[in-house]
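Dear Dr. H.,

I hope your travels went smoothly. While you were away I took the liberty of generating a structure for the chain from your last submission, since the lab meeting agenda had it listed for discussion. I wanted you to have the full record in hand beforehand rather than looking at slides cold. The sequence, exactly as received, is reproduced here:
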Amino acid sequence: MEERGRLKVLVARGGNLAIRDFTSSDPYVVVRLADATAKTKVINSCLNPVWNEEMTFSMKEPVGVIKFEVFDWDRFKYDDKMGHAFLDLQPVAAATKLRRALRLTTGETKLRKVAADADNCLLSDTYVTYADGEVALDASLRLRDVESGELFVTVKWIEAEGAK
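The corresponding predicted structure, in token form, is as follows:
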């Protein structure tokens, strides 16, 4: 596969996560994109963990859906599910094409609004922006199939040198 860029996924933090042990949880996040998987570290006894971990995926285009699965680490049994969320990269791909069409190279620009709706996991509307050579989307995600929990992530697309 010809690499045209890198997709950086920052798993910043979680909020109001579900209790899966007696009074707390030991959460970590599994990030899946196409056939690639990455995982954050475990944060012990915390319902509002801060990971600030960045994963990088080489890609031809910023397409597909990123899946986030939150688990409670357990020493002696299977890890418990703590919800999941997804983020469609289509707005990032569209904003990347717009950035190319506008020939943006410097400055900071809001390229596209992404509205929260029933078909996505966004907690609130957000924007795809361009700054410092990166197309970025900050997202607050509502975890699904769980009683509570949010995930705060940033996705950045960085085109390879010379990519058109």
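Two observations you may find useful: The mean pLDDT is 93. The two ends are 16 Å apart (CA to CA).

With kind regards,
E. W.
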